Amino acid sequence: MGFDSCGSGLLLALPDDLFAMVSRSLSPRDLCNLCLCCRSLFSLVASEKVWLTQCEMTGVVPYGDLIEWRRGISSYKALCRFLITVKPLLGIWVHQNPELGNVVYVMPGFVSVVGCRIIPQELGPLGIEDGPLLWAPVFEIIGDFDGSTVFFLHGREKENDYFYPGLLNRIEKNCNVLLLEVEPREQTSGSKLVHARSFIDHSDKEQRNLCRSDSGLSRSQKLVERSELMVPFSRLAFGDRRRLLEIVTSQVRLKAPDLARGPLFSHSRNDEESFHKYMMLLFERKSLLMQLYKLGEGNIDLNAAPELTSDPAQLEVSEIRKSLDHSSAISGALNVEDGCTQVAKRKTFGGYFRNSFKQILGKSSSMNGSRPNSKKGSSSSENKYAQLHDFLKSGDKIGLTLLASNVKLSSYRAWPNMHDSRFALYKLPMRAPTTGQEYAGLWGGTFGWPPGRPSEDKPGKALFFLLLSYEENEVGQRLLIATKILEGTHYVLHPNGSAMFIVNIDVPSLDPFPWDTDADSLPVVIQNAFVGDGIANGYGFRYPGSKPGSLYVIQGGLLAFMWKESKVILTLQRLNLQELLKKGERVPALPPIANFSYLTKSYSNVFAGCANTTNCLASPS
User: Fold this and answer.
1) pLDDT per residue as tens digits for the range 247-256
2) How far apart are CA 544 and CA 497, in angstroms?
3) What's the rounded Cα separation, in Å, for the pair 413 and 532?
């Protein structure tokens, strides 16, 4: 077949600008396949304009920000790789605890995405739009120079801010659960780990791990053996999982330098001079974090124990306990081998195991229901949970891992049913407003009229976030459901995931709106009104009842639900969380594990301040 007969000549004859427009009809995978056809097409597809177009089509950040982000990455192709990887994470993630609300909004930073927790709060004197929204950082995923990913968990311990580096394991396209885990990995020569290469995995040298000694087996033998013995983190008992996370975070943490505590995302472009100063700070911060990540701070050498010259993961729990008795004799200087990176922090094998694994392995048997001295077979508890020493056999290193998976979840009125002992966040499905579903999306507001600002008699009104979604009832009528995801009261009034009101969009309300003017003495124009039911006291906190009311659609983009009998009114406006967070106020985070997923049942605002780490990390009730 001739060169032009397959049509490649037509593509090669197109100017770069025109081919960039044509490439809008192609996916990144299509472009990668196209560049394999011949060298000429490879050069054509490598054009920066083509990949800038692909970056813009992801819709993650606007065109102007793409130009700024390009300064922190090798090419637009690498940037496109990063954007496609992290795009499924964008949106609202929640957890059932605490009941006031646990809302983490993942949004673009600077060549990064940032998980920001919205703090339950009262409405400030400037209102929703102009008042600072309180938030705390949860995690960051940063794009490296080649478009690969770097993961940092945020946390605060003993009045200091820390970063906890780890590996972004994988992100499924339709992920709905975000899991914080510990993962064993195999080390070969040097400090590299063996794992599958993919579009979302990155260089092994970036992982912050706890090294464990090589068993001396060949690589192929270890791969076969460990594939058979691989134990998922989720199969460990809750106590083992929690303690592993505590140990790893305590060993890999990096104290945040002053520059790293700077801005996480850019402000608006209203002031160009201020905007460019912010961009310079963001660029310097990203460069600093990447240096910290790659220099190896936080690596722990665990190869210094002569008692454990063979693979310590293959030892029985009793043998590890025995080695702990002798660990004080070997807790001197580190004996660094070629397979691990030496660090400035003085960490020792003996101190590490004595202070950490002595507790976790010592309690693992009782927590998992095993009886090492029993002559009988395995108990039902042993079958239910995997043993910790089996989990540790799976590799030479262990480190933090962030895993974004798609799992089958049941839900009730748009609120997912959550596992109470997983260190996880759950994604809320966000529906864009469409014809017939004009009110879908995130709304925020307070009780009382007029809306927007607190009054003199009530200076601190609780701020509510509601997710509005649609369902059909048994007769095919459309129901608008307002699910509570955050409330700013001092003590929770309504359970997380409660339906604050349910409205029948197909049944109009004839009840008049009781106010004629708004806060600026302008006339109130009611565009629509619908019949519905609002939350009320029922059979206790977990099973609220309902009372009739009406939802009013007010000109100017407001919604107001009023309970018919009491005349109590809840006024709402549509929220743009990304813009609110850009001008919001950052507050300190919780300790790392509780900062990611707070599992303790609580009815107060734990994010405004945590008395002590023990309470924050208590097991779920």
Assistant:
1) 999 989 999 8
2) 12
3) 15
